[in-house]
Amino acid sequence: MRKPIWGAVALMMLVSAGIGLLAGRLLIKPAGHSEQALGTSAVPAWMVEDMRERLDTSLRSRVMPDRIHVMTLPTVTQNQSASQPVDLAGSLTLDGEKGLFVVYESEDGDYQPAYSKNEPLFSLQQAGGGYLVVTTVKPASHGQERTLYVLRKTSSGYQEVWSGVAAYRHKQGETTELLDGTVQIDPRRHTMIYFQLERTLDQTGFSLMEKSSYELLRYNERSNRFEK
Q1: What are the strands of the beta sheet with 88-94, ordered from one edge?
Q2: How far is it, in rounded angstroms, from Cα 121 to Cα 133?
Q3: 121 near 99, Cβ under 8 Å?
Q4: Does the predicted TM-score (pTM) go above 0.70?
Q5: Cα 197 from Cα 214, distance rounded (Å)
Q6: In sequence order, which residues have a C-beta less than 8 Å from that of residue 42 and are 6 or more positions away?
Q7: Relative to the CA of 69, which of 34, 45, 125, 156 has its CA 20 to 30 Å away?
């Protein structure tokens, strides 16, 4: 159940989290950062071709290696050999509003697509226990919007275990409507908390409304989902 909490506490948590995760390792930095992202590698030719096939024919000629960002994904267990191939993720952004995010799983010396979103990637973070937090950019009229997804690598592959919840929303009108969302995952207990802070500002930036809440969710092994 979503519950109210003090706005100041929620805001402090959101600021400490940065862009969507209170604990974990950042695999790719948010859009606009010039630093080299962590865990990156060269773009293989097969990934370029796969991403071209996923897009409309009018966009395929624009898919070039220098537009694709490749990330090596962390291993789930400590027993994996250093020589064993790692899973990869690729992201592509075109015009800021069109893009792709694809996870490729290593299978018998080859790579197979295991998960994809037809949305530009904003950030990708590791939370441990096989959990990955994906933040994508969504087109929005009169503002900006980002969405959170949580993936987990299970025995049957990558599963979307939580999806479609706001990470950020900015709507501009007579007033400015702001929403910030972030998650905290405990990989040992397989629990997750989703924090949300909503604010309404007037044209001078003065706060007219502030509302904060959180949800506690637990991972269900049967459904492979985080549930209330």
Answers
A1: 40-41, 68-72, 88-94, 98-107, 110-117
A2: 11
A3: yes
A4: yes
A5: 9
A6: 70
A7: 156
Percentage of the chain beyond pLDDT 90 is 64
Query: Which residues, other chains included, contact 179 with Cβ-Cβ below 8 Å and sequence gap of 6+?
Result: 166, 168, 169, 170, 196, 197, 198, 199
The amino acid present at 194, given as its one-letter code, is Y
- 195 - beta bridge partners? 182, 214
pLDDT in tens, 92-135: 999 877 899 999 999 888 999 999 999 999 999 998 888 999 99
SS3 string, the chain, reads: CCEECCHHHHHHHHHHHCCCECCCEEEECCCCCCCCCCCEECCCHHHHHHHHHHCCCCCHHHCCHHHEEEEECCCCCCCCCCCCCCCEEEEEEECCCEEEEEEEEEECCEEEEEEEECCCEEEEEEEECCEEEEEEEECCCCEEEEEEEEEEEECCEEEEEEEEEEEEEEEECCCEEEEEEEEEEECCCCEEEEEEEEEEECCCCCEEEEEEEEEEEEEECCCCEEEC
More reliable by pLDDT, 219 or 139 = 219
pLDDT digit string, tens, across residues 190-226: 999 999 999 999 999 999 999 999 999 999 999 999 9
